[in-house]
Predict the structure.
Amino acid sequence: MKPINFETIIGLETHVQLRTESKLFCRCANQVEDAEPNTSICPVCMGHPGTLPVPNEIAIGYAVRAALAMHCTISATTRFDRKSYFYPDLPKGYQISQYADPVGTDGHLLVAIGGKKHRIRIERLHLEEDSAKLVHTADGSSTLVDYNRAGTPLVEIVTKPDIPDPKTARLFLQELRLVMRYIGISDADMEKGHLRCDANISLRPIPEDFDRAKELLGLDGNVNTLFPKTEIKNLNSFRSVERALNYEIRRQTELWHSSKPPLNATTRGWDEKKGVSVEHREKEHAHDYRYFPEPDIPPFDISQHWVLKVRDEMVELPEDKRQRFENQYGMNLADASVVVEDKTVADFFEAVVSELRAWLVALEEVSGTEQEIWEKHKTKLVKLVVGWMTSRLFTFLNEHEISITDSKVTPENFAELITLIHQRRVNSTNAQVILEKMFLTGNDPSDILESDDLGQIEGDGIEKVVGTVVNTNPLIVEQYKAGKVGVLQFLIGKVMKETKGKADPEAIREMLMYRLK
Ligand code: ZN
Ligand code: MN
């Protein structure tokens, strides 16, 4: 009999650590992961009886900003709730979170997969405090508690079960990280735990096989039923998210194939070293937490006026920037994505392009309005800029561990270099030499070109050298004419050497081939 096929249903819950100065309900310094343990604590975040939490307005503003960036509806009135559970990292015995009225609901995030945009719906976005951190000693004999992290503001972002496969889950998280960085509310560094993800996953027979599976396994429900899920907790790298989900698909597929689909929702942990997930416990239900309104903080309004102000101050989001780059600069999605991946890189790119327009118009041989000249050359020039930025400039930046904003290469000078290349005043080998000097000294590319005599030889200049090389290598020329075309490379090399690398190899090839026809 034909085996039953399954579809994967994934939803993500992501915690994002906010980079506020102070914690969510007290004045202790926030983001102190490098500080000595238990040095950024006070009676409030230690949960001493009789203390009162005071909400951090900046953190609430950040949550509103995040919710708007995820296209959520902002709740006009919201409040905090207590989520009760006991754990050594939770000194109060409850976490102050939001249950009934999250800051944002019903949003979405677009994820590009193979040129197609996939819309992942966001169910809710709420604010909550982080727990303390448990540190297990190396010998396994004891567990220590560092309360520095207790009370750190987090936003939790919950998707609908809209994610069809592990790769899309990874891409969603990468886009989420980028958005959080763009809007400046978090460093969103997964390695430092600023971004932590719980992944929910279940399988379901595909609609075509559903009736057959129903009969075979005695299932209840219909093609839209969600079956008991597995929640994989605390995934802290993009790689482990993808690996853990792939592992779960294999594990659950086996269960279904052996007629034992999961009966209850469970919580599992991911063992990155062994590459397996391990069952922790049966999943809690909302009622297990006994949520109730936080009595120490009254419900509060998020005024429409404030929301509009946050919206006005919002930066251009990565998705919009990519779209604009495609439209405005004639870039393809791949190039636009590379440039938009870092906001400072995108800013540098746009500064270069704007300088480039000015250079282009200043060139004598072109005529027309600035717009006309630009439209005619933009696709080619932008390709040149992206290529030289991502392959050459990035190499120097990475080698020297310098960010683009700290680099000595200014957008003005970079645009000038691109102009020199575009005008064929320098070939690509020497342009690389110039860029390295610009990188090291911050000098102007035209000055380096002149002082180091790196300008390109053209036309008659190359022609003369080609003539000499042909005349002084009769044997090679004979071989070429006898059909051994590979020796052409040797002649090109000779000419390159004679011209001290200042001629364009392609021009040399053409001249040689023409002369030896
Ligand atoms: Zn505190
Ligand atoms: Mn949470």
In short: The chain has 16 helices and 16 strands. The pocket of manganese (II) ion (ligand 2) is lined by residues 15, 128, 156 (CB under 6 Å).
